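Morning run. Coffee first, then this:
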Amino acid sequence: MRHLLPLLVALPLLGAALLVATGRRLPRIAVEITGFTVSGGTTALALVLLPNAAPTMTEWVGAWPPAGRESVGIVVVGDGPALGMATLASVLTLAALAYSWRYFDAPPHNHTGAFTALMLVFQGAMCGFALAGDLFNAFVFFELMSVVAYALTGYRIDEAKAVQGALTFGIVNSLGAYALLTGIALLYARTGELAMARIGHGLDTTGPGGPDALVLASFVLVLTGLLVKAAAVPFHFWLPDAHAVAPTPVCMLLSGVMVELGAYGVWRVYGTVFAGPGGIPAADLTRALVTLGALTAVTGAVMCWYQRHIKRLLAYSTVAHTGLFLVGLGVLTPEADGGVALYLLGHAGVKAALFACAGALLDRFGSVDEYSLHGRG
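And here it is:
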């Protein structure tokens, strides 16, 4: 079964390439059915692989396993959390594509092929990030997610507010990507490895007495990049701007999956890379995540309370829930991890449904402002 893991990334990317090549020559119904079929096939594959996640499946893509103490191949890991996140991303992408059926009716937004292709690339990037077993390819999929989400956020390019929201999204997430890449470079300089498990082993071998300045700097940089994606305070302000202008199906994925993948990345990188004796002490991480999580939760809740724009309200609600995810992860116990996983699944489904309802209000009444909607029901 492990040989099927790369298909979770390859299938949606190949489907997107097919739509880019033929989408303008296909009727709209054919484009939508193709996108739905490819996304559905990926979702079905994820659901088939998920029950086989124990023991952990590991696949070196292209049959390039480590040679002695050196590793240059691309490794994907299919354990329960990774396949769970890939399944969640696929299910919500499928739901978003179903919701977007004939979503863009009027010119110039009738290029369904481009939108559906972008959604499939987004699905492939999210699955790739969830399954990545090495930091560099996690960064590659991290960036692919950001670029596609940037394009989807500003899809209504003829509207100035859509361009402004997309630019805010692009600039903040690019800064997070620079931080993440710099942290990965420092870890590579120390260990000569990119696979997460091998980096963790290298840190424990070279610095068993605790983290030095280089390890601490790399941890802060990697954590910053992931927290930008998770929309944690003080990196949260891109999310409300993006949600306010993005098409509703895109909002379903931004809050339903992408933000959660940032929190998942924090859990994965710390547990695999920095949790050993040469990494960051657990007590220090607990203090950092619980403090940051509490600040994020309170800030998001207060800002949510003051919103009258429903999509911004839901965005700040996501920020508040991100804070609670971080508090749970900071406890560093299996019970807390299980609770966060269950909470994350519930939040993803409910938040995607709430954005779908907001989209229905926008379609029916032309507004999601609470004052203008008062009494319209």
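Confidence is low (pLDDT under 50) at residues 106-110. Good start to the day.
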